[in-house]
Amino acid sequence: MAALILVVDDDEPVRVMLARLLRTQGHTILLAANAIEARRVLETQQPDLVVSDIVMPGESGIELRRWIARESPSLPVLLISGYSPEGPAEFAARTPLTRFVQKPFAADDFLELVADILGDPKPCVP
């Protein structure tokens, strides 16, 4: 099932790579370079999933997740980070509809996690 997914990452190559990867599964992608842009998108769009980096200039992905939890409590969020997983993984475990994946990750593992969050059958790996 195709979904509308918001990808939030301050690193443009990562943002573009994630968008391309998700498009291989038929998803429609919205892009934001930081939490402020993400909030603007979320004011007018209703994605099925938000994929957000944690460490970004200004507001972090965790702060963005807290805002989403208040404004759209049923919206799932997949947090990604290349830093130590203990803090973010613990936060995700305590926060409903939040998952965490450590960078670097294999494309097929990432797509499988997205499919699981969206309730889709196993994805086709490009």
Question: What's the structural blueprint in terms of helices and strands?
Answer:
Layout: E1 4-8, H1 12-23, E2 28-32, H2 35-44, E3 49-53, H3 61-71, E4 77-81, H4 86-94, E5 98-102, H5 107-118
Parallel strand pairs: 1-2, 1-3, 3-4, 4-5
What does the model show?
The chain has one domain: Response regulator (Rossmann fold, 3-Layer(aba) Sandwich). Helix content is 43%, strand content 20%. It has 5 helices and 5 strands. A 5-stranded parallel β-sheet has the order 2-1-3-4-5, with helices on both faces. The radius of gyration is 13 Å and the shape is globular. 31% of the residues are buried. The model has no long low-confidence stretch (mean pLDDT 89).
Quick take:
The chain has 126 residues and is an alpha/beta fold. It contains 5 helices and 5 strands.
Number of domains: 1
The percent of residues in helical segments reads: 40-55%
Major sheet: order of its strands?
2-1-3-4-5
The number of helical segments is 5
CATH superfamily: Response regulator
Sketch the major β-sheet. Answer: 5 strands, parallel
C-alpha termini separation: 16 Å
Give the helices and strands as they follow along the chain.
EHEHEHEHEH
Q: At CATH's second level, what is the architecture? A: 3-Layer(aba) Sandwich
**Percent of sequence in beta strands:** 15-25%
**Radius of gyration, CA atoms, in whole angstroms:** 13 Å
CATH fold name: Rossmann fold
Shape: globular
In the predicted model, the low-confidence regions spanning at least 5 consecutive residues are none
Beta-strand segment tally: 5
